[in-house]
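Quick one: structure tokens for this chain, please?
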Amino acid sequence: QDLQEEEQTGQPAEKQKMGDSSSSSRSSSMHRAADLLRPVGPCPICGRQEVLVPFVAYPCRHLFCYYCLRSHTEADQAFCCPVDGVRVVAMQRYTVHVPS
């Protein structure tokens, strides 16, 4: 079977298998990196583990679902972060800056 693979691909079977392994390894590394960049839940307001449309509250910098944070700050101009009690004065979409 190794000879058949070598004839079909032009590469020895062992090298081909190693190539498959390295591309698989690269792919899994990229998935792990993407997982590290995902915002970590739960949202302090709704408790959802996967924060929907993540936004950062300022000045405390805690992470919330956009809809949770927006609705609470609209309803109460003096809304305070439920984590630390600091008044939320601004909000910004959560972004990750990846060095190029």
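DSSP finds three helices and three strands in the chain.
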